[in-house]
Amino acid sequence: MTSIIGREIKLEDGAPKVQGQLKFGSDLVLHGQLYARLVTSPHAHALVTAIDTTGATKLEGVHSVITAVDLPDIAPASRSMLLLAKDRVRFVGHPVALVLAESEAIAQDAADQVLVNYEPQPHVTGLEATLALNAAPVWPEGLPGASAEAAAHGAVGGGDSGGAEASPNVAGDSTFERGNLEQGFAEADHIIECTYRTAGVHQSYIEPHATLVEIGPTGDEATVWTATQGTFFVRDAVAAVLSMEASSVRVVGTPVGGGFGAKFCLYEPLLALAAKVSGRPVSMTMNRMEEMITATPAPATRVKVKLGAKRTGEMTALDAELVMDCGCFPGSMSILGPMLMGSNYQCPNQRVQGVEVLTNSPSTGAYRAPAAPQCAFAIESAIDEMARALDLDPLEFRAANASKPGDKMAMGNPWPVMGLVEVLDAMRNHPMWRDREQARAQGRGIGIAIGGWPGGIEPAAAACSLQGDGVLQIQISSVDLTGTRTTFQQIAAETFGIEPDQIRIISGDTQSGPFAGSTGGSKITYTVGPAIMEAVAEVKQQVLELASGVLEADAEDLEIKDGAVQVKGAPQSAIPLAKLARKTMSYGSTHKPLYGQGRNAQPGQAPGFCGQLAEVSVDQDTGEVTVHKLLLIQDVGKAINPLLVRGQMQGGAMQGLGWALYEELSTNEDGQTVTATLSDYALPHIAHLPTEFVMETVEVPAPTGPFGAKGVGEPPVIATAAAVANAVADAVGARVRSLPLSPPRVLAAGREN
Amino acid sequence: MTSIIGREIKLEDGAPKVQGQLKFGSDLVLHGQLYARLVTSPHAHALVTAIDTTGATKLEGVHSVITAVDLPDIAPASRSMLLLAKDRVRFVGHPVALVLAESEAIAQDAADQVLVNYEPQPHVTGLEATLALNAAPVWPEGLPGASAEAAAHGAVGGGDSGGAEASPNVAGDSTFERGNLEQGFAEADHIIECTYRTAGVHQSYIEPHATLVEIGPTGDEATVWTATQGTFFVRDAVAAVLSMEASSVRVVGTPVGGGFGAKFCLYEPLLALAAKVSGRPVSMTMNRMEEMITATPAPATRVKVKLGAKRTGEMTALDAELVMDCGCFPGSMSILGPMLMGSNYQCPNQRVQGVEVLTNSPSTGAYRAPAAPQCAFAIESAIDEMARALDLDPLEFRAANASKPGDKMAMGNPWPVMGLVEVLDAMRNHPMWRDREQARAQGRGIGIAIGGWPGGIEPAAAACSLQGDGVLQIQISSVDLTGTRTTFQQIAAETFGIEPDQIRIISGDTQSGPFAGSTGGSKITYTVGPAIMEAVAEVKQQVLELASGVLEADAEDLEIKDGAVQVKGAPQSAIPLAKLARKTMSYGSTHKPLYGQGRNAQPGQAPGFCGQLAEVSVDQDTGEVTVHKLLLIQDVGKAINPLLVRGQMQGGAMQGLGWALYEELSTNEDGQTVTATLSDYALPHIAHLPTEFVMETVEVPAPTGPFGAKGVGEPPVIATAAAVANAVADAVGARVRSLPLSPPRVLAAGREN
After folding, report:
1. What backbone torsions phi and psi does residue B42 show, to the nearest 5 degrees?
2. Contact yes or no for A515 and B592 at CB 8 A
3. Per the CB < 8 Å rule, is A239 touching B603?
4. How far apart are CA A176 and CA A412, in angstroms?
5. Contact call for residues B97 and B114 (beta carbons, < 8 A)
6. Per the CB < 8 Å rule, is A463 touching B603?
7. Going by C-beta distance under 8 Å and a sequence separation of 6 or more, which residues neighbour residue B114?
């Protein structure tokens, strides 16, 4: 048997997915279930003075219309706890009522007949407007969960206020400093001071949110089927609103048709309460417009960067401030931004700051490498501007300042093992970079950028058992977003010594499965993989010991080969695994079940870096950018399944092209999202695929990763926009400092040149 | 905290059960499911020459009518593999077709319209008739799974044939001999030679069989929800007919509303095929008449006993032959009978034989202590007859010959630790026995008998995790028939050091749960309990180690108290278990999940003995027997929950009263069951409860049982009928040698006197 690690195996659920056989959340129908539809606010900020449900409830097939008075009084301390508006709506799309009916169509008809009386209030939209000291407060009565003072006045000074006084809508600020900024800028030969902006971007998963909730017949237990990245996360949220013990709530993760950070918990608590209030199972599948206006996209940002460097290529000072428009709830991502801006390069004097501001807009959330594409766009653009100003090679300028393991991150803690230098080395040697002058000669622009993701950790456990048919069954609780089940088949198969198709991965619900953290932060292979290896190794040892007794040979003299245990090199002694397993599963047997477990808690993160090179041309008449070539070189630790790894890289970069060139959530002055359909919101599509789209990997093993593997999902989305922006600047000789690089912006920049 | 072992706690699912909140199999409804009804044979033996489904399929709401031609060609090697009759029916109730329709009522209407053309064949019913050499063969073409010769001629000579030639319907024979029978009888001062008969008896669970099967959308996996005692057993059977890997079939055990051995696997394979053929989920709930005529009751038996003993009370020879009318399939219980007849007493010269014969009747199956009530009725009656003939005290006669640990069982293997002598000692000292002459003085009869059950073993595993709300969750796969979940809460709570209501027992399905054997043979507490203890102890150690780090104290200096870990004797140091658990379940945590496992395979059985004393009066005019007092004294090893133990004892003895006095499955000469409703079949009811119904326990610990516990479910049903029969003989001075002791039989015996 050749090694299974490194083998290219197709997704184990790929065929049923593309053939339409997999049951997603919206395919589930429970006997007697009700269908729910939302009534949402058309106002960005208003008082709710009356709700008339008479007409709606009279419709045949309508079960009930639920409003805030039907629900427990729960503080809306986060988006998923917002439930239904009590007396005030804070964004267009804010849920006001929930209609329950015998069919989805009836529920929608009835939702249209719920009459809500609104009294509009002053509102604020847009990052610049909300930073003003006199901005209308999003939470005039105070942000739930924050101290009243902090909520009313902003936690700290930030944004344009420049001091102790701040906009009422500043909700969070994290700043990390080191060295002496003034001195650093004084030592610089050149200083770049620019402001970069990125648009709000939607995750645009194919599958909308779909949830089904059933309250058990005794009323003290609940089952939630939902398309979530974090079943235990949903469990705790639902248990909280139902006032149940967390372990009384069973969350079954349905296959996720795209999550990208947006599917943690949204309407599950509301639907759980609806099921409790109605006494019937309740199902809701969002439609696309609801996804666009009420779900949790990536925030629009503004990044001010002041960067100083010596002519020799040494960075001397960095002052960077990220402001994120978080919509009506803070996202607690203000720490991530400074870390992402101030860690990849070693600059002795720096201040990196992340500020969260609120507006009367849908709350934002995580989107694949949250905050990283925005920060990379700013920092990697500024570095390129500096290199250009000092006439330095942009790759060598980066390499000269690149962080290495042991160097300090923004917060002062040391980088663990990581491969930024190796990625830059591989880029330097790649023909696409080496031959860049040929491309330029054709009028094309070349841009590079790097993106780094720190990686996540969260404890995880696994169980393993050998079944009576010889199948090795692995039980875990992590949600499979990116093909981890297939990867785990390979990890288990290699550890045990059988083929991957003899491995069955069971993704348990929160009651039947051992704990695993949410699927997010590029950590599932890294954290669950070792738990699986430990569980499998334990069962392997049990199997060898059982066979040892049967074959009358030392366990160390045995091997697993071709689905059987044999004395090493003696196939005539082979006992099939199935036969051994059945010895432990029969009446009267005195052999213990073949059952093992693994528990893992990683001691630290395994950061992943992805360098990108874009080769573009710009239509001088229209400003349209064409990406001809896109190269990704990523440190993946170890590519357990290179096919899936390249798939992650390609998918990430395609989304990166969306950030770079197309995607922009736009809101009008009334707070209405004007890009609320996929006709109005521009996603990249297959015609935008670069002609040459090259994915390459380097392998700097993660010391505690399974076979050295580290997370690969997040890194490839980060640097694309910056690489394309740098390539556009290279092509047209002028800089576009706002994403997306839409034709008008590119044309305008070209005109400045 | 006082010890939880020995505490009387009510069934954890008792309230939802009696309040109608628990969902049984027939409560489950899947979207789009079909309802199935059977078409069964009205003939005891016939060729099926044509099936006309035209009328049935024309009915609105009928999906299809499935017959043998729609199914794969599977040899009917057991009752559950019988599926649908191909060309021959072998008993009244033999399934011929299965109607699938949108409702149960429509399916039943359509089933009534399926026209089947039968060509009747010679048939045989009744044990004596089928033993005849010229009996019509039940399997003229040979018993599937047996060699053709064995099938056609009987495996060995047996029954009335007395030699090499045997009835064609003898299907199995097991004989164990020791010593010299002839010499033994020669040494006897007295010889008893009698024939005892018991009627066929139905398990009469409240809940009928209910099964729901869904084939997964990809067609290569199936889920079966069914009221079964053995989920893995069903899994293997269903996988076999669907030609799937066993691990592709997920069996979810629904709450069992009474099993008593009858709910292992019956129509699950047929319904799985129906779901596959129809492409829809299929559900079937049997009605009471189908249960009575097509399910698997306990066999009618005839036991010939020849017993020799010395005047001093020493048994010298035992020759016992048990013949069981197994219906149309052998039950492989022929070994059990000899073991039960020839082990409880030490007789130097003995031959014990079990013979299975077939008839054109529904196949029989297991019923609580299969074969044991029948064997005990014969042996314990014969012993009583001997004691009476030799004027020996029946208790002392038993005690003089009673087996002790290490003594030989019928097959020659030694008895493990068991408490027959302790049970007899306790009976000897009990007032009901001591004061028996007072009862006699009132014209009542006193009878005693003992029943022993060897106990079963089968490997089992368990998983344990501490949840974020402080609940200790135990995952097992055994089906709870008798309250084992509540018992396991106590075992886990005692092991961990928390209260039982903080323990949640999850009974997993065959995919999510670790392996456990079927629930049968009084073995679940004995086999699964230690696995739970091991898993809990592992988690406890993990918890103490985690707390050790937090409290900066050695793990050995810590204790778990009031739901928290504290330094011994220092409650101010306490950290709640929930808080510790959450440390292992959060983003960024470096603490491993609190997750443990246990694996158990018992090295041997833990036999349980139950002695019974009945005090009866007999109405001289009607022959009606009234049981005034019934005493059970049972060795339970350790009563983990005395309330549940007494419940098992009481339930068993009530069923024993059914055997003794009321229950009899009767068939007419056409093979029609004439006791096919609960109006015609006499179950004991609450008015039959003895006025004094006393359950007492002795505790001879099982060396490897959890806290010394052994199985308690089977022993209490075994001796009741014999004790009542002995009491009736004591009362009327004449012996009834056939069960049930119906008034006509008692009257007739009285007249003989």
Report:
1. -90, 0
2. no
3. no
4. 9
5. yes
6. no
7. B39, B51, B52, B53, B55, B56, B65, B96, B97, B99
B622-678 per-position pLDDT tens digit: 999 999 999 999 999 999 999 999 999 999 999 999 999 999 999 988 999 999 999
- Judged on CB neighbours under 10 Å (0-12, 13-18, 19+), A50 is exposed
Whether B323 and B159 have beta carbons less than 8 Å apart is answered as yes
Question: Of B66, B473, B490, B702, nearest to A477 (Cα)?
Answer: B473
C-alpha B607/C-alpha A443 separation (Å) is: 90
The CATH number for A239's domain is 3.30.365.10
What's the pTM value of the predicted model, to 2 decimals?
0.94
B83 and B77 in contact (C-beta within 8 Å)? Answer: no
Question: Where is the domain boundary, A572, A600, A628?
Answer: A600
The verdict on B582 and B447 lying in the same domain is no
Between the alpha carbon of residue A246 and those of residues A673, B493, B628, the distances in Å are 36, 19, 51
Whether residues B403 and B314 fall in one domain: yes
In angstroms, what CA-CA distances link A58 with A148, B237, B696? Answer: 42, 51, 63
* In A479-637, alpha helices (H): 484-496, 524-551, 577-583
> Would you give the end-to-end CA distance of chain B in angstroms?
61
Q: Tell me how crowded residue B437 is: count the other CB atoms within 10 A of its CB.
A: 8
Question: Is residue A610 within a helix (H) or strand (E), and if so which, with residue range?
Answer: strand A608-618
pLDDT of residue A1: 53
Phi and psi torsions of A347, nearest 5°: -125, 125
A469: which chain B residues are within 8 Å (Cβ-Cβ)? Answer: 239, 245-247
Nearest alpha-carbon partner for B655 in B724, B710, B609, B606 = B724
Enumerate the residues of chain A whose CB falls inside 8 A of the CB of residue B584. 459, 515, 601
Q: Which domain holds residue B306?
A: 300-455+605-752
Residue B248 belongs to a domain with what CATH number? 3.90.1170.50
Question: Do A630 and A708 fall into the same domain?
Answer: yes
**Contact assessment for residue B318 and residue B410, using Cβ atoms and an 8 Å cutoff:** no
Residue A751 CB neighbours (<10 A): 10
**Which helix (H) or strand (E) element contains residue B309?**
strand B300-309
Tell me whether residues B592 and A601 touch, CB distance under 8 A: yes
* Judgement on whether residues B244 and B308 belong to the same structural domain of the protein: no
Strand order in the sheet with A46-52: A88-89, A46-52, A115-120
How many contacts, defined by CB atoms under 8 Å, are there between A and B? 177
Chosen from B35, B522, B599, B605 to mutate, greatest number of chain A CBs within 10 A: B599
How far apart CA B331 and CA B447 sit, in angstroms, is 32
**H helices present in A658-719, as ranges:** 715-718
Structural domain count of chain A: 4
Which secondary structure element, helix H or strand E, spans residue B674, and what is its range? none
- Give the span between the Cα atoms of B375 and B352, in whole angstroms: 11
| Residue B6 lies inside a defined structural domain of this protein | no
Alpha-helical segments (H) within B243-392? 268-278, 288-294, 336-342, 372-390
Which tens digits make up the pLDDT trace of A694-722? 999 999 999 999 999 999 999 999 999 99
* Interface with A, mutate which of B595, B600, B602, B605 (most A CBs under 10 A): B595
Domain boundary among A254, A285, A316: A285
| B393, amino acid identity | D
**A118 falls within a domain:** yes
Helices (H), A391-453: 394-401, 420-428, 431-434, 436-441
Report residue B247 as tokens: 């691990």
* Residue ranges, chain B, pLDDT below 50: 147-164
In a domain, residue A374? The reply is yes
Structure-block tokens of residue B272? 């799985």
Pairing of strands B595-600, B460-466: antiparallel
